Amino acid sequence: MKAGKLVCLGIECTAHTFGASVVNEDGEVLSDVKDVYKPPPGKGIHPREGAQHHSQVGARVVKEALERAGVNAYEVDVVAFSAGPGLGPCLRTGATLARAMAALLNKPLVRVNHAIGHIEIARLTTRVEDPLVVLVSGGHTTITTFVDGRYRVYGETLDITLGNLLDSFAREAGLPSPGGPVVEDLAKKGSKIIELPYVVKGNDVSYSGLLTAAIERLREGARLEDLCLSIQEYAFSMLAEATERALAFTEKPALLLTGGVAANERLKEIMRAVADEQGASFHVVPLKYAGDCGAQIAWTGLLHFKHGDVVAIEESFVKPRWRLDEVDVPWRGG
Ligand code: AMP
Ligand code: MG
Q1: ∠ CA(135), CA(138), CA(140), 5° rounding?
Q2: Closest by alpha carbon to 42, among 177, 208, 137?
Q3: Averaged confidence pLDDT in the chain
Q4: How many whole angstroms from 5 Cα to the centroid of ligand 1?
Q5: Which uninterrupted H or E stretch holds 88?
Q6: Which helix (H) or strand (E) element contains residue 267?
Q7: DSSP percent split of the chain into helix, strand, coil, nearest 5
Q8: Which residues are within 5 Å of ligand 2 (an ion), measured at CB?
Q9: Ligand 1 near 263 CB (within 6 A)
Q10: Taking a C-beta distance cutoff of 8 angstroms, is the pair 191, 226 a contact?
Q11: pLDDT tens-place string over residues 224-242
Q12: Could you tell me the distance, in angstroms and rounded to a whole number, from the CA of residue 177 to the centre of ligand 1?
């Protein structure tokens, strides 16, 4: 029930996931519904097919989110959608639905940067105020923290993301999608580290050479479990090195891990050790909000809305390459 509090309907649509969620101004997630596109075996997401999936499930997912929240569509105070970064056709499908809802209900529309959504849902659910954030997902590998009005990037991948590395390797190995959890399971049965490229440049990491080498080792007949173990150890250690340096430099009191890859137990273990070493507390986004979801958009949309940050429908174009450090974050002060 609404009971006088502002509520936001958020729509997530950057890649595989079409999500919708209703969140109120106290940060209570009243509903969070999703339907995730699964590409055919051995294939990555084709943007047009992802968009087609979203257009097929979108109306039902939004309806279910409203029903589960016990909120009538006309009680929604603001409609938010993920405007980027992401795949153009997927973004445009979600945007079209969000615009239609805002126009029909005569309610304000807000664009949310998807990466900031991952950060804010993690801050909300862990109640950690001012962390150094490590965002690891299909679309991001970014070390960031809030400074002077924006999230600033202290390190990132120079090429593919951590999620991409795991998913692409899994695909090459004929494993099901998403690859991350499957690689994690197989890694537990690994017993030997196979040498792979370790590339950290300044505070940035590079994973494409690691992927190429791992695929080569696979073709040469290396044991899959050992390769999964080795990929994780190399990839996570590289990120840990960059994170440790950023934590030492920024002197933040807390380290917060968020995004889909934050579900990985070994990564959590390594990042916890980094935080301990630097005297920072360690936090991880709850599993149900780790991957892409409507709640990250609904909550961040509400934060923008409360600071008057709305967009006219005719100007609400999507931004497939929208970087998180281009976005003003007025709710953090300063
Ligand atoms: P997102 O883009 O935030 O939805 O995150 C999706 C990414 O998280 C995909 O690349 C998945 O393979 C990855 N992922 C999900 N669970 C795990 C896991 N347990 N270990 C590693 N990666 C994971
Ligand atoms: Mg994501």
Answers
A1: 35
A2: 177
A3: 97
A4: 33
A5: helix 88-105
A6: helix 265-277
A7: 45, 20, 30
A8: 137, 139, 292
A9: yes
A10: yes
A11: 999 999 999 999 999 999 9
A12: 10
